[in-house]
Amino acid sequence: MLYTINKGVLEELTGFYERLYYSTLEYFDPMIVSKTLHEIVSKESPEAVLFPCTNKGRMIAGLLAGLTGYDTVTDTVSLKPLSDGFEVIKLTFGGNASATLNVKKPMIACIVSGSYKESETLGSKGEVIEVNAGEHILSVEFSPRKLEGVDPSKADVVVGAGRGVKKKEDLDMIKELASILGGAWSVTRPLAADYGWADAWIGISGLVINPKLYIAIGISGQPHHTMGVRGAKVIVAVNSDESAPIFEDADYGVIGDLYRVVPVLIEKLKKGK
Amino acid sequence: MKVLVAVKLTYDINQLKFEKDGTPLLDACPRVMGEADKCAMEEAARIKDAGKAEEVVALTVGSSKEHQRILKDAYAMGATKAVAIKVNDPDNLSALTIATIIASFIKKTGPYDMILLGSGAGDTHSSVVGPMVASLLNMPLLANADRVKVEEDDITIVSTLEDGQYKFRSRTPAVVTVTSEANEPRIPTIRDILRSKKKPIDEISPEDLGVELSKVDLVDVKRYEVPRKRVKIDATDNVEEAVDQLIKALEQEGVI
User: Is B16:B24 a contact under the CB 8 Å cutoff?
Assistant: First the structure.
């Protein structure tokens, strides 16, 4: 079964679940979401409760674990049923290592995006059930992420800018490259959180993306960031520092000054179109 | 106000190396107070400096020399008391056990007005311990704070989540988890460091708190790599040629 506070997804997902619970909430409030989910879990007694491995998913997973006492594993890439539980494979140490563990059921897992192919539908429509979530516990103000162009989590091509990009104006060439490739652009955490150049970033605490092509420009390749792009089919890195760790995670590593490489790349791609 | 900060001794994963067979060389990896935990400690110290808190208790699960060291670091940053939970192998405990220890300690020695934790540890980064503690104590959770504001018995945080920016507000007591972007942790003065060395670290065992330890049933840990081609293209001299080579490769991959 499913629980969501986003009624909009019910139509699309109705074929995948026997029962689809939803609540209507003005804003995401982790406290009431977890309390409502706890009621559903108590009623349904599932063997596993799964969340997307996002900031919100981790938050609700942890709150639910405290309410239920279920063991919880995050960053899960595989879950195999055993007789009394699950064999779980999770990523750890910044995604540099994977750990295999046995966890008793019932359990909670946060699943890394891109770990599974989309499943088949059940062939019938699930029952849709509304659950009253009750009063807000936190006071919440929300400003939605402003998207300039394509959503990086849905794009086939994503161009990412890191600290090698010196000025905010220089993001224009990153955006231009993304637009020529029909893709999206984004940044690393410092550019968004420290400099305020963008509303979101790619990385374990931000967006986790699975494009066909990821182009990392002026990005050194900290595990925080590379965890967010490991699902990319092909990774290109442009960096002047030959010893930057990003080259270990790249299929094609262009060693050179991004301010010389990117304009030439833009020009040649334009000509080729 | 009385504030509790829970800090973790984490592996500095940027320095983690692996054996040829993929086993991580954890013994050779330096260990530090988690980056976000440091920001949580800094946040507590600022609240104390502003005269809003009298007591700042730093807590860590584990009592080895290295655990003692990060508690001394907490003292040097402004903690008024430091406590180590006597556990031999805290890294093998489940997240829920760690959260239960922290929550039980709070119940036993509280009440506290604010519980601060890092939003995620540098090494495991599960980000679930803070939320678990909140549920176990039946307190509101203000998670993933990039900014924290405390006004009397009111806490407001700004949190960047997948779909945008949230401002969460609640009354104290509350559990607050802090990201590594929340502040620039202070570098303690030599005087503070020397003073911290003389300060006592209390020890308390899980049995004293009535907590049963549940270990993770770990089968193995191995290096994990997505296979990448790692083709190097030198664009230091001939940019044109390098870009041609790149475009050709990407066309062959069928991604542009």
Answer: yes
Neighbours of B18 (CB within 10 A): 17
- Quote the pLDDT of residue A113: 83
Write out the residue range of the structural domain in which residue B115 sits. 2-209
Secondary structure of residue B120 in the 3-state scheme:
coil
Same domain membership, residue B232 and residue B145: no
* Same domain (yes/no): B182, B232: no
The three-point CA angle A31-A34-A39 to 5° equals: 125
Shared-domain flag, residues B148 and B244: no
Using an 8 Å CB-CB cutoff, list chain B residues near A212: 255
Shortest Cα distance from B200 to chain A (angstroms)? 32
B176 and B240 in one domain? no
H-helix or E-strand containing B25?
none
Which ipTM score applies to this complex? 0.92
Residue indicated by tokens 């970033």: A201
- Contact of A229 with A246, CB cutoff 8 Å: no
Residue A260 has pLDDT above 80, yes or no: yes
Q: What is the CA radius of gyration of chain A?
A: 21
Mutate to test the interface with B, among A25, A51, A96, A229 (most CBs of B within 10 A): A96
- Cβ within 8 Å, pair B170-A144: no
Based on the domain organization, do B171 and B232 belong to the same domain? no
Partner-chain contact B131 A206, CB within 8 Å: no
| Residues B220-231 pLDDT 10s | 888 887 889 999
Q: Is the pLDDT of residue B106 over 90?
A: yes
Q: Which pLDDT tens digit goes with each residue over A74-114? A: 999 999 999 999 999 999 988 888 999 999 999 999 999 88
pLDDT band at A214 (very low <50, low <70, confident <90, very high): very high
Asked whether residue B241 falls in the same domain as residue B172, the answer is no
| Of the partner residues B94, B135, B223, the one whose CB lies closest to the CB of residue A97 | B223
> Inter-chain contact A145–B246, Cβ cutoff 8 Å?
no
* B54 and B164 in a common domain: yes
Give the pLDDT score at A273. 60
| DSSP, res B215 | B
**Into how many domains does chain B fold?**
2
- Pairwise CB contact (< 8 Å): B221 & A233: no
